[in-house]
Amino acid sequence: MIRVRFIAAVVCVCCLSGLQAQESAPDFAQWLDGLRAEARDRGISDATLLALDAIQPLERVLELDNSQPEFVQTFTRYLDLRITPRQVAQGQALLQQYGVLLEEVRRLYGVQPHYLVAFWAIESNYGRATGGFSVLEALATLAYDPRRADFFREQLLTALQIIDDGHIQAERMSGSWAGAMGQLQFMPNIFYRYGIDGDADGRIDIWNSLPDIFHSAANFLSDSGWRGDERWGREVMLPDGFDYSLTGTSTRMSLDRWQSLGLTLVNGNPLPVVSGMEASVILPAGAQGPAFLGYQNFRTTMTYNPSTFYALTVGHLADRFMGGEAIARMPENEHAMSVADIKHLQELLNSRGFVSGEPDGRVGRQTRTAIRAYQKTQGLPEDGYASQILLESLKN
């Protein structure tokens, strides 16, 4: 999910990172010496540490890490890029092709095959797009950068341990610019904790071995709270007069409680109420878009990627593999807001006493809370959704 940045910012960062590469190479070399010493203290062999000898900071990694999109992607655009008739048909064929393996994984970990294949599709397009960066170089670049040095240093040391344990050769350890590896894009610490040798060949290979890939992903999801006897969630209809302040993952209530508030299936039928199941109402496109109930497996999906768009897309794609219908109430002509628009919206909220934090062009929890507070004062649906209509309202 590569982001595009402003041209001026690209030029600035490229110039700065180019200067860093020229001016701080000795400092990076010294930093690597310190990393080697720490790795040796952890028992990593000198033979493995030879892989660090040719490493230099990657300008492209810093560029991508610093990048910012010009526009905030809409739910419609996000979904359309990832769920197509071709993707659905291919996933259904792969479910048949690897049915025996996927059923074996389901019996061991309780993760249903259609969900595993949906993760596979979204993370790497069924293994075709796993990233072309050297994981060691990408992680070293990010660990040397001061902003999140501790996190990425630990990831780098763990990646070296994975190599030292014989799971993969350093030159074959490829991944994303942020160091996510393999066909289901594990960070090294997730690999180290949850990786499974599914084909019993003595190595964990999440780049090439589908048994290792599916066993490892299912192990992670199972440990994170996946429930094999439940679905992820479903699209629902909200009643007239619904209290939109109840939406979002911070509110979780039982299905019978949601039913008592008037929620139904999209065809108008009552919700299937299962004792003990709780859900949150998710509105990815605001009050005018579709509404979903997200169950425990929706929350578990967000441990994989903490994005409601991501979790909804994985769940919906899994449904489509099993013959489910397209989302019924997708918005028409959903308009993307620019990052500059979001910053302006945040500035206006702050100026009116609705604290949204430092204007950064990103709609996080604090901004959504501020939007809800403003919407309440205006008698608007409290959906916490940033839109052009909301921006114009704040301008007046």
Residue share in helix = 40-55%
CATH architecture of the domain at 7-69 and 130-223: Orthogonal Bundle
Strand content: 5-15%
Poorly predicted runs of 5 or more residues? 1-25
Strand tally: 7
Contiguous helical run count: 18
* Mean pLDDT rating: 92
Shape: globular
Distance between the terminal alpha carbons, to the nearest Å? 36 Å
CATH class of the domain at 7-69 and 130-223 reads Mainly Alpha
Main sheet record: 5 strands, antiparallel
The CATH superfamily of the domain at 7-69 and 130-223 appears as Bacterial muramidase
Structural class: mainly alpha
Overview of this structure, please?
This protein has about 400 residues and is mainly alpha-helical. Among the domains are: about 160 residues, Bacterial muramidase (Helicase, Ruva Protein, domain 3, Orthogonal Bundle); about 55 residues, Muramoyl-pentapeptide Carboxypeptidase, domain 1 (Orthogonal Bundle). The chain contains 18 helices and 7 strands. The strands form 2 sheets. The protein has a 5-stranded antiparallel β-sheet. A hairpin with an 8-residue loop joins strand 6 and strand 7. Helix 8 packs across helix 15, helix 10 packs across helix 11 and helix 16 runs parallel beside helix 18. The longest helix is centred in the N-terminal third of the chain and has 17 residues. The radius of gyration is 23 Å and the shape is globular. The chain starts with 6 loop residues before the first helix and ends with a helix. The relative contact order is 0.11. The N terminus is likely disordered.
